[in-house]
Predict the structure.
Amino acid sequence: MRFFLNKAFFLGFAALTWYGCARNTNENSKPTAVPVKLVTHKEAVDSLRKDTTAPLKALIVSPLSEKQLASFFGEHDITPLLFMADAEGGYANRFDGFYGADHYRIEFYFSEVRRDSLNPTVYYVKGKNRYKKNITPFEGTVTFDKLATFKDPNHNEEHYDNDEFALKESYSAQATFDFKENAVFKGSGVFSGKMFLDFYERKDGTIDLWYYSQNAPAQGSGFKFDGNWRNYKTNQTKPVVWAKDLFIFANDILTDFSIGERDVEINKKYRHLGWDNYWENDEWWHDTPTIQ
């Protein structure tokens, strides 16, 4: 039985790893039109659960002090959790989201993430977003102000010792974000709100995103940005949310948005909201934004 459980966990973990890199492509390569298979990590999440039919128990959370937060971020650069800097970046730095009252699709692409040299809780981000056919560059900051460790009582902890996992500690961090679009673009504004980051430290000291607790602040998505956009000129506001893996909680926002658990299909009734071309490997971030 133990062998079976370990094998199930390994297959689920492998599926999640594949999800994180299957859509990667060289950022400098030419755009292609290769169909992309949408895979989420529900199987990997379930493989850790003691009982997938039981109600989720609350996490056991231990908040850390401001001093501990400063110490942790001083010792750990979390840039790799937000940004893949090598040539395999591409789609790994592109994230899906919902925007506006109708939850229309919006995409964000991070072209650069770097830690402040004096304040390690502050990270500078540059990138572009695409809403419908409009591509707008932005830049801004992510400032971490809360950090906690947590334990998930829903998990079978024997899997934590698996070589592919080697869990030492799991963390949840909270930050504020402020991303300002370039004001020369028509209809530009600023995105701001809260960012939630769930991650874990391995026994060898390395860190990685934590996708395995759907009742954690990032809801099993790795990281989640949740806030509003405000127009510079009119002060009009619209809600926005995007994540590393939006699909793990998308059905909480739009009922039956995605169908399936591992091999996911987007519900046909929502495809007109910008999802009809999701499977096209469109490297739109290479395009030069048009100033209107």
Observations:
- Residues 2-286 form one domain.
- Confidence is low (pLDDT under 50) at residues 1-39.
- Residues 7 and 47 are 9 Å apart (CA to CA).
- The helical segments are 2-21, 42-48, 66-75, 79-82.
